[in-house]
Each structure stands twice: as structure tokens, then as C-alpha cells.
Amino acid sequence: MSFLLPCPNCGPRDVNEFAYQGEITTRPAGSPTFRELTSYLYFRRNVAGVQREWWCHRLGCQAWFQAERDTRTNEVLLTEIPPPMRHEGAPGPEATPALGENPTL
Amino acid sequence: MRLEPRPGERLDRGEELTFTFRRKEVRAFAGDTFGSALFASGRRIFSRSFKYHRPRGLLCCSGHCANCMMTVDGEPNVRVCVEPVRAGARVKPQNVRWWLNWDLMAVTDKVGGPFTPVGFYYRTMIRPRRAWPLFERFLRGAAGLGRVDKHAGRKRRFDTENRHVDVLVIGGGRSGVEAARQAQIRGEDVVLVDEGPEPVERWGFPVLWPARAIGIYEGNLVPVEHGSTLVRFRAKRIVVATGALEQPMLFPGNDLIGVMLPGAARRMIDLWSLKPGRRAVVIAGDERALAVADELAAAGVKVARVVDLRRTQPREIEAWGRYGRLESVTLDGQTIGCDLLLASGARQPAYSLLAQAGARVEYDSKRGIFVPRDLPPGIEAVGAVTGEVGKTAVPAATYNGAAKADKCFACVCEDVTDKDMKRALAEGFDSLELAKRYTTVTMGPCQGKLCHLPSIRLYARETETDEATIGTTTARPPWAPVSLGLLAGRPHEPAKRTSIHHRHKDLGARIMWTGAWRRPHSYGNPEAEAKAVHDSLGLIDVSTLGKLLVRGPDAAAFLERLYSNRFADLKVDRIRYGVLGTDGGRIMDDGTIARLGEELFYVTTTSTGADTVIEWFDWWNAVWGLGVETTNVTGALAAVNLAGPNARELLGRLTDLDVSNDALDYLDAKQAHVAGVPCLILRIGFVGELGYELHFPSPHGEYLWDTLLSEGADLGIRPFGLEPQRILRLEKQHILVGQDTDSESNLLEANMPWLVKWEKDDFVGKAALEHVRERGPREQLVGFELAKGLGSVPPEGGQIVVDGEPGGRVTSARWSPELGRPIGLAWVPPELAHEGAELTIKMNGGFETGRVRLKPFFDPDGGHLRS
Question: Which of A2, A20, B316, B428 is 20 to 30 Å from the Cα of A91, by its Cα?
Fold first, then answer.
């Protein structure tokens, strides 16, 4: 990989400055079954297309942000720091609406 | 052998310089290359071939082939034909036993033929198995290129430079220069790179010369080798003008010294005024190559025969030589004496960079060359690389030759002959991609520049198909050989040092690496240092701990979600131990958390885990969007741990704070001035004795360290390092994350179930731990001790043997001076995880019996900590 990734804070930078943390997943709520738990932990969609994913500008501003990237071409359509949200409940899908389904095209 | 001064030559005959070749002086003019100067001095043998040690001379004279590779000033594999001369340089031949003109290993060429087919060593040198290292040593010595001097110091410093341009033009021929000029006229920011050896016409745009584009990567990234700098170009538009390369022809004896590509002879005459030979034969398939015949004549070379392949195709070509030097060539039975044979098939577009960028490569059967098609966006091609090479002919001559004919090389770099290729085909490697891997054809230093097309042709003839059917092999970077130093860049070995580091050195500490940190292993006597902590007072620099402020209205809720135990109920000024887990329930890091206010927590992490933990906190913070801010204060604060029975006495002397057991209890956190330095005092006991961790601004590190040592002198204070700390913590069975745990360990099996608060709604890893609880433990982390007085310690990673099978492993083990016996931690099967169970530990080439101890070895009730 050698494309440029625009950091929401720092602008376009070499992708080597970033840590990739994979596609956005949905954390199961309550007491998931073993299968639900393992698919959350280990199974990924591995989309051939646009996926939403986590990145951290590790060698830069160290911000965590989300990107929409076409995994086939590495074209980055969008990067943004997810808007802050206040939640009372425990983490779970309802607590992380921005991290829901992958907008797969 | 030098011609009279000619217009256009690159030499400055007014300036002479000398270098040494095999300790003998060689004279050169400014503008020469090492190769041209050596040729002028009469040298014809430049190297010995890779496998057969055949003598080789100049072939391409353009820095592509491996024929002129030598070791210059200790740097191996320098192509001397394009390397500009430097006064005083030391040039040596390579891959030679004895001497270039008389190489002992040349015997492989004479008698080795039947015994050394392609890949022979994998078939014949496999028995006896134990002898392979010997064989390998011999083979490595016999075959190959130059040697790297492993003991040499660093001579060159490599750097990396990043440049962003509108247009990058690769290749400085006529088309490349024109493309760059057009871009310049349009006002684009353009840079041209050219690898030489001929200089580039300059028109005011920046030129890197000599500079080699190594490849085209994703995102229009082009790394360019420019001297000792790797320039990483990012271009909006890349114009490839790499031209076309003359291709050697296949005929017996095609590697003899004197067989050259026409362009090589032209460059020798034009640039360096060298007379490439006395009597020449020219076999060529295009106008450009044929024109060299006229240049030869003008330079005083007798041209004995010119064959235009477009008109007449000789059926058989055989070159004959003695001692590796060309003496004659036979064309269809007619022998012509000559010492120079310029032979070239079609000029093949140098499409590799385009193919790397994603272009398709197609065979043009009319002209007998492969041409690039369907260029991806942002990539352009101009000039000969597009296939505009004029009218050419496909050489048709057979390479089989008469019975006594010499070897015919498909690939001179790797010494792959036509026989090797045929054999590969016979063995079933019918795809060129497979043949490439089996015979290593095209995998040598020229990267296929001079052997790709000939090997495709050979396969096409042998399989009775055509070049289009055989197809090309995948083009991959690097397009040209590149030194590893250039890719590695400037060596960075970052070391983190605490603000007290120089005091440790002054005290004679043995410094060791822990992650990127430099820390004192000990100050000379680990056991005495550990004893001082138990008996009187010890002082250790723990500035390396990760330190993190978590602040905000949701700070407590945030920590509740991250850690398995409770923090909402932690009182202000109190401390609690916590272990960070992943959602898979695995242990990630541990540390203490002090509540400094309702909305402010001070979190410490392990020394090596600090960066990971801070990133982890920030990530979950971004996920949850809670009202929390994290601040990394690892570097801002220094920390020392004052531990031992006399710790309170010393601390009391230096602060106004009430340090009595009632006012500053175990696991209390207080802020106060110590010796005038504002400190956060954490009363914790990692090493098992009464102890205070002082966290304070880094700049005061040396001052506070000195003050504590001098004020505590009468109390028997002694600095201690990591090693004594490891002994002390082991006596308490305190785990070290990463040492006693691995990526599979969880809290339940690591014997810390008390840290898991099941009643909490959720925390990271809860669901996974519930499943672990349900299935029951598979192994358990336990303490163990060996017999009193046993002098040796089991190795870390040593086996626990259960019923003759490996059943567990030792993770930490030390000899405890306090207990007088070896102690340790080990993962054992659950059935052995009970007090007093017997463990069979593999050590000392035999077995020792240990006993499981579930409670700390030292001070199991924590009386010392709370004293």
C-alpha cells in the first residue's frame, strides 16, 4: 500500500504514517452467544468495494478517525472524526450508531 | 586503444586521475568510467560468470548486464561501465578464485556441464543430510556475485527524500526531454530522471542524473535512486520514456568476450573514444544498429561483414573463441575471423515500469516485440517504449549449433543456457513463469532487460508456438538493482532515556534495552540490591512507566468500561490495580489507577505498553464518544519508587505531609512537596515492601534522585535496577504482562479472578470471559518453588513435564536470596494448579521437582506492604 490518506487534522499523508484498525464492526450487546462473540471478534466482511474503517494517525496527530475506502482501488472517498456522542448505557450497537452497518456499495 | 580526441567525447583529456585495480595503478581521464578506463588500459576480462566462471567482458556498456560488476571501495556489484571514475578508488574483481584471467573455478565450465544441470544441488547434494551446510558453504562461495564485508563500518549514509510534482518524466532521451519541455511550457512542476550513461539535454527543468527509477507503485509513487538518496516521487502524471533495449541474440558462444550489443560499441566510441575491436562483424535487425557499422569504420575498425536481418537471415550463427575471447564467427558455414561481433535482435521497448503500473503487454508479431497497451490513468508513455522502434526483423537463426559448438546463453547474468531451458521444459515447467522460478532466467541483476525476450523466443521455438502464446512474466519492482542500504535509509535506533539516566551511568549501572527504553539492569550486584530493599531501603527509577491523565465528567464510567474491576466507587486519593483486557478477554496491559479528583484519574501502564494503551484508550474514547479527555504525560513526569522498611523515615524527612500509616495508608495517593519538588505520592508495593512511588516533573529527576540518595545514606539506601526488581516482584508473584502472559492469557486462567467484577453490566472482554468461565480453565498460572539450596534456575520458557509429555511452561524464574531457593511462575494444567502439587521441570539436562505455591512466597499476608 502506498496511497495517500487524508487525515482530518493533518491533510493528505503517506499511508505509512497511519495504523489501520480494520473495518468497523458491531459489538454485540448483553450476553452474546459463543458464535455471535467469535464472529464479532474474528470474522470480517472483507468487502471488495467501499468499506468504512478505522484509522489512527499514529506517526502524526494520533487522532482516530474513520475512512470510506474502496478496497479494490484504495481510493479514499471520505475521512472524518466520528462526531462525539453522549451515552448513558453500556457500549453496544445502540451506543455506537455511527459504527453500524458497513455502507457497502 | 584510445582514439584521437573527437568532438562530443565526454573525456576531459586535460585532467588525468588514477585509481587502482588489483593494487595496480590505472590511468583515466576525467569523464571516464571505471570500465572505460580499464578497457583503455587493455583489460578485456571484466568478470567471471555466475555459475560456470566463464570470462566475461563488456556486453551492454549501459549499466544493465552483470558482465562488468566489480567491487569498488568495498561496495560489491558496482557496474563499472557506468560508474564515473574517482581518484584513488580501489577496484577489485569479484566471484573469482585466484585471478580474473585464471580462475580456478572455471573448471565447472570445462567438465561440470553434465553434472551441473539447473537445480542440480537440490538433487545431488541432499545426502548425507548433515553435510548440507558444507555443500552450501561451497556453493555460496562458488556461485554468485560480490561479497559484502560484514565487518566493514558504515561508509555511506543513505537518506530518503519525499517530493511531490505535477509531472515526473522517466528517461532523458529525445522523447523524454520533449515531454518535459511541453510540461514546462504548460507551467507544470516537472522533474526528469535519467539513469545515464549519456547526459541529458538540459532545458531549464530540474533533472536528476544519473538517477534510476526503481518502480512505479500504487498512488503514482516512484522511488528513484539518486546517489545515496532515495527520492520518493509522488506525481500527478508520470511520463515513461524509458526507450527500447537491444536484445542479445541466441547462438552458441554468444557470451564470448567481443560479442557485444551494437549500442555498447557506439557508446564506447562516442563517449570515451575507445576502439572496441580491430575486426568486426555486425548482425543487426534495425537501422540504428546497422548505423554502428559506419561508426566502427570511422573509428578505424575493419568491418568484415554486415548482416541486415531484414534482408538475409543466416540459418546458423556460431561464435568461436579461445580463452573466452572471440576469434571468429561462422555464418551458415562460412567462417569469418573477427574479435568484435555486434549482434542484436529487435529493440525491445523497456515497458517494465508501465507493466508495473498496470499496463497490458501485447506481442506485436510483425515487429517481433512486446508493446505496452491500455495505460492506466495518470501514466503516459512516449518514444520508443511505446513500440516506435522502426522497422525491425525477428532473428530466425537456430541456436542449437554443431556438436562441438560452445554454450548458448539465454541469460548471461544467471548462466542459464538453452539446454537448461529445454531441460526445464522437458521436466514439465511449460509455463515461462515456472521456468523462471526453476532456472532463475530473468532473475539476475539485469532483471530480464537482456534475457526476457530471448527466453520467450526460445520457449516459443521449443514448444512450436509463438511469442504471444508464451507471453511475458509479471513485471515487478525493482526495475534496476538497488542497494539494501538505500531501501533501509538512514539507520534510526531510537533510544528513550529517563531524566535520571546519566546518574545511573555515573553509579556504574549496567544499562539494558527494555523496548525502546534504556534502563539499569542493576548497579553491579542484583542480589545485594534486592536484599537492601528487604532490609533497609532501595530506590529505583520507574520513569518509564506509561502515565496518562483521564479527565472529564465520564472519566469513571470510561474506566469502568475498559477495566474488568470497579472504578466508579474508587474514593478520591485512593489507588486500585487494574488489568486491561481486549474484547477477546485477553490480557493486554496492567497498571495502577489513582483517583485524584471526582473527574480526574491518573493511570499508569507498563513501560513497554504505554503507547499501545494510550492508543487503546483514545480508540475506545472515539468509539464511545464519552465526555473524557486523555493526556499522555509519560515524558513529562519522572517517577521513582522508594521501597523498604526505612522508606517512611526518609520520606518523612523530606516532606511536610503526614506520612504516618493512618494519614498515608497503603494504596493512598497524595500530592505534596518532597524536597521542594511537587510530587504525586502513590503508596503501592510492587516489590513487596513498604513503598512510595513519587511522580514529579521530569526536569527535577536528577535533583530528587540525588537528594533521596544523600538524605537516605544513613538509612542504608541503595539504588536498585530492573533485575533486583524482577526478583522482588517474583517473590510476591506479581505478574509481568508480556513476560508471564501472552496473547492467549486471560484473567481467570492467570489466577486473578478477583479482578473480574461479574456484576458489572459490561466491560471490554466481559462476554469472552463469561465463555471462559463456562468452559473452565485450560491452564493456570501458578507460582512454584524448587528445593532449598538448589543452585540453578529453570530456563524461562522451560518445560513442565506431565506424564512424559510437555504439559506446561515456565515463564519467569529467579533465585531468591530472601528465600534461599529458586522460585518462579509457570503455566500448568488445571489439575496441577493446587497448593503443593508436584511439578516436573525440565532443566540442567534432566528433571527437577518443584512445588506449586498459590500464595506469594514472601509476606503472603501483605504485612510488610501495610506496615
Answer: A20
Give residue B355's pLDDT band: very low, low, confident or very high (50, 70, 90): very high
Q: Which of B217, B583, B761 lies closest to A90 in CB terms? A: B761
State residue B650 phi and psi, 5-degree precision: -70, -45
Contacts of residue B474, Cβ cutoff 8 Å, sequence gap at least 6? B355, B433
- With an 8 Å Cβ cutoff, is B761 touching chain A? yes
Measure A9 CA to nearest chain B CA, in Å: 15
Rounded CA separation B350/B383 (Å): 11
* A19 interaction partners in chain B (CB closer than 8 Å): 615
Q: Whose CA is closest to B680, among B609, B592, B602?
A: B602
Residue B4 sits at the chain A interface (C-beta within 8 Å): no
B583 interface with A at CB cutoff 8 Å? yes
| Cell numbers placing B383 | 518514444
DSSP secondary structure, chain A, as one string: ---EEEETTTEEEEGGGSEEEEE---PPPSS--HHHHHHHHH-----SSEEEEEEE-TTTT--EEEEEEETTTTEEEEEEPPPP----S-SSGGG-GGGSS----
pLDDT at A11 over 80: yes
* Strands of B740-816, DSSP E: 780-785, 799-802, 805-816
> Which residues does chain B have within 8 Å of residue A3's beta carbon, measured at their own beta carbons?
218-219
Omega of the bond leading into B117 within 30 degrees of 0 (cis):
no
Cell numbers that stand for B179 in this block: 515531454
Residue B258 near residue B399 (C-beta atoms within 8 A): no
Please state, in angstroms and rounded to a whole number, the distance separating the CA atoms of residues B111 and B18.
40
The C-alpha cell of B579 is what?
488489568
CB contact at 8 A, B810 and B855: no
Helical segments of B41-168, H only: 107-111, 120-124, 132-142
Among candidate residues B680, B510, B715, the one with its CA nearest the CA of residue B604: B680
Q: Mean pLDDT throughout B711-716?
A: 96
- What average pLDDT does chain B have? 91
* Ordered DSSP codes for B211-265: -EE---BGGGEEEEEETTEEEEEEEEEEEE---EEE-----TTTTSBTEE-HHHH
> Quick one: which of B49, B47, B41 has its CA closest to B80?
B47
- Alpha-carbon distance B604 to nearest alpha carbon in chain A (angstroms): 19
B548 in Cβ contact with B616 (< 8 Å): no
What chain B residue is nearest to A19 in terms of C-alpha separation? B615
Provide Rg for chain A, Cα atoms.
15
Q: Looking at the predicted structure, is the pLDDT value of residue B653 above 90?
A: yes
- pLDDT at residue number B86: 93
Contacts of residue B808, defined as CB under 8 A and 6 or more positions apart, other chains included, come to: B779, B799, B800, B802, B826, B827, B828, B829, B832, B839
B594 CB-contact burial (10 Å; exposed 0-12 / middle 13-18 / buried 19+): buried
B234 touches chain A (CB under 8 A): yes
φ and ψ of A15, to 5 deg: -60, -20
**pLDDT value at B327 more than 90:** yes
Q: B669-704, pLDDT tens digit by residue?
A: 999 999 999 999 999 989 999 999 999 999 999 999
> Tens of pLDDT along B33-57?
999 999 999 999 999 888 888 899 9
Those residues with Cβ within 8 angstroms of residue B277's Cβ, 6 or more apart along the chain or in another chain: B258, B265, B301, B338, B339, B340
User: Any CB–CB contact under 8 A between B771 and chain A?
Assistant: yes
With contacts defined as CB-CB under 8 Å, which chain B residues touch A63? 618
At residue B274, does pLDDT exceed 90? yes
Give residue B202's pLDDT.
83
Site from B218, B231, B236, B554 to mutate, A interface, most A CB atoms within 10 angstroms? B218
SS3 label, residue B719: strand
B721 close to B500: Cβ distance less than 8 angstroms? no
